[in-house]
């Protein structure tokens, strides 16, 4: 059962006539067989399905992500961090929740790299697709976790949270900064790039005003009045550092 969105049908006449019941035999395997439900008004007599043909048992196996060796190790390491936290909480030691949270995130990023290495060396298309999906899930988990750590776990003075949020943006959304570096290297041809204005806008929103100004100076119309006014406005913007 590789596709969770599909509906699977058991072609069994006895199951169709009597009904079915199921029991989990392992965390990812469901055993299904024919079964006539017994209700409060059911007559106490031998079922009419007794001795009619054989009764088949069907084992339905569902994909279980933690059967992946890499994720098994991942769960082991994160459980070790959780046990450490429980041990500290049960003692009189002061819990450094920020450090614990960072340990969790560090473990996630370590296994993100392992999944990426696995994809690079794999030839099985199904495995590659599974690992790509896992990378996406773990990446967003770490990204949201980091944001929650800043907002709820790491108690800092109100002014400092802006700096931490800016660091979060640069860490998790580095595309604009990388492309800005390429455009600055290209020099005067930078404004011909299709993403030039998108990068300038993103840099300003991220608080990287100096880099945005450097890109604007590379524009072919940088000497115009409009650009000079923009330069003065950007120079007057507050910079958090």
Automatic annotation (TrEMBL):
Main location: nucleus
UniProt keyword Transport, yes or no: yes
Cellular component GO terms, alphabetical: nuclear membrane; nuclear pore outer ring
Swiss-Prot/TrEMBL keywords: Membrane, mRNA transport, Nuclear pore complex, Nucleus, Protein transport, Translocation, Transport
Any one GO molecular function term: structural constituent of nuclear pore
GO biological process, one term: mRNA export from nucleus
Pfam families: Nucleopor_Nup85
Compartments in which it is found: Nucleus, Nuclear pore complex
InterPro entries reported for this sequence: Nucleoporin_Nup85 (IPR011502)
Function description: Functions as a component of the nuclear pore complex (NPC).
SUBUNIT field: Component of the nuclear pore complex (NPC).
Family that this chain belongs to: Belongs to the nucleoporin Nup85 family.
Identification of the protein by name: Nuclear pore complex protein Nup85
Natural source organism: Phlebotomus papatasi
């Amino acid at each position: 059962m590789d596709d969770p969105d599909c509906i699977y049908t058991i072609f069994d006449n006895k199951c169709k006539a009597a009904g079915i019941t199921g029991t989990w035999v392992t965390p990812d395997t469901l055993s299904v067989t024919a079964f006539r439900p017994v209700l409060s008004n059911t007559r106490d007599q031998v079922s009419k399905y007794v001795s009619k043909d054989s009764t088949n048992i069907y084992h339905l196996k569902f994909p279980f992500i933690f059967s992946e060796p890499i994720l098994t190790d991942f769960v082991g390491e994160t459980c070790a961090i959780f046990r450490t936290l429980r041990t500290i909480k049960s003692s009189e030691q002061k819990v450094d929740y920020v450090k614990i949270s960072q340990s969790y995130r560090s473990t996630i990023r370590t296994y993100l790299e392992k999944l990426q290495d696995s994809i690079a060396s794999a030839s099985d298309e199904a495995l590659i697709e599974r690992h790509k999906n896992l990378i996406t899930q773990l990446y967003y988990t770490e990204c949201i976790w980091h944001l929650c750590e800043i907002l709820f776990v790491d108690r800092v003075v109100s002014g400092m949270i802006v700096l931490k949020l800016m660091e979060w943006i640069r860490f998790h959304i580095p595309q604009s900064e990388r492309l800005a570096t390429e455009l600055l290297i290209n020099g005067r041809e930078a404004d011909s790039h299709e993403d030039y204005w998108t990068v300038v806008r993103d840099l300003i929103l991220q608080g990287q005003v100096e880099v945005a100004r450097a890109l604007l100076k590379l524009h072919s119309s940088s000497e115009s009045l409009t650009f000079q006014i923009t330069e003065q406005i950007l120079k007057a913007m507050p910079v958090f550092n």
